[in-house]
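dude i think i finally got it to work??
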Amino acid sequence: MDSQSSHHSMMGLMASEETRTAQTGMAHTPTATSSTSSAERGAAAVASTPETTPGTGRTRAWATRLVVVGIVLSALNLRPAITSLGALLEEVRDGLGMSGSVAGLLTSVPPLCFAVFGVTAPRLARRFGPAAVVCAGMAAIATGLLIRPYIGGTAGFLAASALALMGIAVSNVLMPVIVKRWFPDRVGSMTGLYSMALAFGTSLAAAVTVPLTHAMGGGWQPGLAVWSTIAAVAVLPWLPLVRDRGTAPAQQPVRAAEEQPAPLRITRSRTAWALAVFFGLQATAAYITMGWMPQIFRDAGVPAGTAGVLLAVTMVMGVPLAFVIPRVATRLPQQGPIVLVLGVCGLAGYAGLYFAPAAGAWAWAVLLGISNCAFPLALTMVGMRARSGAGVAQLSAFAQSTGYLISIPGPLLVGVLYQQSGGWGLPIALMAGLMVPQILVGFLAGRNRTVEDEAAAS
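look at this
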């Protein structure tokens, strides 16, 4: 992604979607007043984004390239803080003298931080601009990851982790906002691009943290701190966009125009609530899968090394599918059919874990990997269910913050059921049971409507 040739290759992949959008007659000027779908109305409302406002073509192309690179590099940094720690959790516990309960708390800290700090993202974006906030978020991730192995003590480790997670939280929320503002007619392609980068970063940190640690002498401190390097690099493409307002012509008028005369009453929108619950249930499934699936396989007699590879297979499935699913989703008037396919794959995977965990382990890993791609679908629907950039910011903050709060109890409850029952029957039944409401609310969230219309009508 560093070279212009890579960028042009990526843009070529998105050309078909842009052409299709143009053929539908979607408006690309601020004066557009009507269209045939909520997705098109959303695009028209933010059509005066930096890439479509007056200015030199060279300036717009340069700024757009920076945004694309910034989106990809930022997405790469949205999960390594979590998955790198998971790979070295035993070493960290021993090194810091951490109790089992505190180590268990670490697994609940990420969604809690995402919920608490994510709410602040829209307010910060209105005051400083989304690019500035994401830039600060990447700096917070780099700082937190660099100092947490060396700060000393459990309290310092938790505080530095919280700093990194705060940067991740605000960037999580603002990624759909930046996509909507800069690429209103390519929401699916760009959401797919950064979802794919996010999945790749997640898998990369899980796969190479331990080998990197061994290569650097075996100490867990450098094995964790090394991930701050990528976050520091991700700061760079955002700096010109923060410092030089000329790279984003008319950005301030656009931001002012997008703001509502009165705050959008997001809680009055049924779609917003459906999307928040859908986000929460898919996050619950993802955290349960990442936290417990290897243990399920190991208890069934699968070797520990193979169980780790099976988890990697599940996570890697998200890399190609995270690019494909958002592109397909934006071509459909409703996203319910995709929700159903992903949900059925999840139910089939859980059934396999229940009846034949070892015999069909590879098939269940693939099915659950497909099911976990509800995450990029949820991000895509955030961009499609709001008409304006301000609406996307509010919806993204509400859906993600509420969703991550919903996801906190799931992994803990699975652990309790496993310990109390002495087996995986009840936990797997819980996982399968949660998939049913996920499908139902996903259908509601996938309907072709906007939160602005629902909030105004209530």
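The chain has a mean pLDDT of 81.
im so relieved honestly
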